[in-house]
Amino acid sequence: MATAIKVEHVSKRFTMSYHRTMKQMAVAASKGNKVSETFLALDDVSFEVEQGQAIGLMGLNGSGKSTLLKLVQGVMRPDSGTVRTRGRIAGLIATGAGFHPQLSGRENIFLNAAVFGMSEAETRRKLDSIIEFAGVGKFIDTEVGHYSSGMGARLGFAVAVHVDSDIFLADEVLAVGDKPFRQKCMQKIDEIRKEGRTLFYVSHSAGSVRRVCDRVIVLEKGVLGFDGGVDEGITYLHYDDDDDSGTEESLGADI
Ligand SMILES: Nc1ncnc2c1ncn2[C@@H]1O[C@H](COP(=O)(O)OP(=O)(O)OP(=O)(O)O)[C@@H](O)[C@H]1O
User: Fold this and answer.
1) Atom of ligand 1 nearest to the CA of 42
2) Could you report how far apart the first and last alpha carbons of the chain are, in Å?
3) N or C, which end of the chain has less CB nearby within 10 Å?
């Protein structure tokens, strides 16, 4: 099997500012107080993914999952280390990312598809199917700025799944959609798996990770804490003890 993603000794540092205005910063600095602090959102992370593997990327809020996905997608660069990927990458890593709020849903489909490397002709060919999948109905010609967060996620996911990608990144795709849409997304993710495409699936739901993934990577405060089997990863996180009724967990079980 060929390697699809190779992450080697990757670190990413962010700066956290304690003050919002220049004046506040100047006052704090004159008193000798700290005005900002840098911290490692990712700290020397290394792993390899074989083509066709489905990775469940898990960890507590703020552990660095989205940051790692952004590095894999290439929209952000590591401060040190390397990220190498093979093939076309698509996915939804942030609700509404890449959408222009003053353009309509239809216009944003073309914009977003172009960002993923789809030609205008390819987008036109797939347009009806994308609109149908998004299921935003008559709102397709409304400004995206007026969409609910769920509608924005539906549109973003609809475009992403229509890209012929080798690697699919899904960050919290099931967090904002309603139940019928989440079921549709899970079916699509199953198709992506069957087609032998590589999947990176970020989720807090043990049920859906079990359903979709064959390997789990756990981040803990930016450090790779666990890399191995799905059940072992979920046990490592103690996510089996949770009461997930009414959330993605129950969805993972009932579809
Ligand atoms: N652009 C940025 N500038 C400064 N800090 C950032 C930036 N992006 C992320 N962070 C910080 O980096 C840390 C990791 O964030 P990240 O979004 O990767 O976590 P996550 O594991 O995806 O969290 P969640 O489960 O809540 O989605 C957090 O402390 C976050 O506040």
Assistant:
1) 14
2) 30
3) N
Q: Which atom of ligand 1 is nearest to the CA of 68?
A: 18
DSSP string, 33-85: ---EEEEEEEEEEEEEEETT-EEEEE-STTSSHHHHHHHHHTSS--SEEEEEE
Mean pLDDT is highest, among 31-45, 154-168, 216-230, for: 216-230
Name the one residue in this structure whose structure tokens are 């959330």.
247
CB of 59 closer than 6 angstroms to any ligand 1 atom: yes
Report the distance separating Cα 93 and Cα 73, nearest Å.
9
Q: What pTM was computed for the model? A: 0.85
ipTM greater than 0.90: yes
Beta carbon of 21 within 6 Å of any ligand 1 atom: no
Q: Could you state, in order of their start, the residue ranges of all structural domains in the chain?
A: 89-165
**Exposed e or buried b per residue across 96-106, where buried means at least 16 C-beta atoms within 10 angstroms of its C-beta:** bebbeeeebbb
